[in-house]
Amino acid sequence: MMLICAALSSLGCGADKPIQKSDMVMDTVVTLSASGAEAEAAVTEGMARLHELEKLVSPQLPDSDVSRLVQMAGSGQWVELHPEVYHLLAVAQDYAAKTNGAFDVTAKPLVDLWGVGTDHSRVPSPAEIAKAQKLVGWQKLELDEKTHSARLTEAGMGVDVGGIAKGMAADEVRKIYRRHGIKDGLLNLGGSSIYALGVNGEGQPWRIGLRHPRKDDAQEKIAVMPLTDEALSTSGDYERFFEEDGQRYHHIIDPRLGRPAQSGLMSVTITAADKLEDAGLLTDLLTTAVFVLGPEQGARFLRTMPSGISGALIDSRYQLWTTHDMAQRLEEVSQELQFWQESGEWQ
Length: 347
Ligand code: ADP
Ligand code: MG
Fold this sequence. Notes:
This protein is about 30% helix and about 25% strand.
């Protein structure tokens, strides 16, 4: 009986019908889908876990770990964090050091000053930027591993995990899927953080469209990424921005300059193999970091990462910079894009 069902399942046996649920979490639409005997439980538990994690990192909730940390800024007191949040900050600090502060969760005062994506977005004065920058610096966020605690050394500092929380949340849901033996499924956190397992309902690899960075229609693709047992994240200057005097000001800040990064990139997509620890968190963090670093430095940095990580960077001249095996894997690449070869030749 088991055997018959196993054989039939590949042809669409009823038990393997994908389960799918959507909800608003972390200010974005999340869709979880899964196939397998325990798909329903995995999706339900996964969604509950996302709501739980949101409560830990939400800047709006006064009791969240992030809010408590910010409230205590400058007091000298250590704030004990939940293990997931501690881990999130520990990885963030590791990459802040590795990127010389291009990625920096303490950029919050600058994020707030520019207000990109809010109703008070504006170009601040150089004096305002200098003032906010004094409150930014990853070295001023201290962590204590023994007690899973953290503190911000100066009053007025902030922490913004908006660039990484969804990736960490995807990893946590992925763990739940593993416990339920889910082999096939898709975690989609707002389109920018994705985790694909196995195959889709048609038995094919999942196919993720990379959005065209300059078309208003979010459905317009510039390439397609087939994805199996991998996390994928994208950061782009088209997600949240405002324009003034012909200049685009977007939501990814270069903390060292105190302003939206003008690194010459329009979008960064990174994938990480499921076998890598923190695959979702890493892709989410690296897209933001590489966006700030720009094409040359960003690609160079990515090439120092282990195999299993690969990147596709689109610069403002529609030149596509790829690392690892990305160039071979991308499909339906728009003719607008030119591949940058490591030999230094454009193709
Ligand atoms: P999205 O949330 O749209 O997927 P990203 O993952 O690229 O976008 O993250 C951008 C968010 O990260 C910003 O909205 C801000 O909250 C935060 N952020 C901006 N600049 C930095 C930076 N240099 N380092 C760390 N976080 C940043
Ligand atoms: Mg990110």
